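Aim 2 progress. For SAM-dependent methyltransferase, the working sequence is reproduced below.
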Amino acid sequence: MVQDLPELPAEAFAKPDRSPDPLFYAQPRLVTHIDAAAIAAVTDLYRAVVPPGGVVLDLMSSWISHLPDEVAYARVIGHGLNAAELAANPRLARHFVQDLNAQPQLPLDTASVDAALICVSVQYLQRPVDVLSEVARVLRPGAPVVISFSNRCFPTKAVAIWSALDGTGHAQLVQLYLQRAGFARIEARILKPEGGAGDPLTAVLGWTTTA
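Predicted structure tokens for this construct:
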């Protein structure tokens, strides 16, 4: 929370809708939250950086994970706030429902995951450093976390600091989250620029080791 990011305002992680997040996500939404071209861009990124045959953690997932269809993984573990959405996701070998804003600790062993994904959901985290510190714990050395985001969101559930920033600011904010969570190497990539056709898409990647 703000104690991890003292340079941010006290209300940086407040939301317009302060009701518990599980209430908002109680009804399944079997829709895509970015357009087809943005989905293709994130899939291409996963194809390039997520190791085939590895264990993948898809945090804040839904009924689709955007992983490349032709690549096999040892196991894809999904997390979210709606059990029906997760149960409908054919890529998930297992899943769990957990409110990360209330309980950021992940029910996974240390150094047990080969890649972690957060797709168009980082804007909802109220304890991002706590959550990403847990991601760092469960990743194996050298394994990536891939955080992708657009300019689309549920505005009443996005944190205040996210809503106050533009696309460049979002990338800088996510890089700050990863830095405070202990990631040694951080890289931002513009997958689809703002101002073009369709949804823009940026990804910030982090690794706990520099090699």
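Residues 36-49 form the longest helix (14 residues). This observation will guide construct design in the next reporting period.
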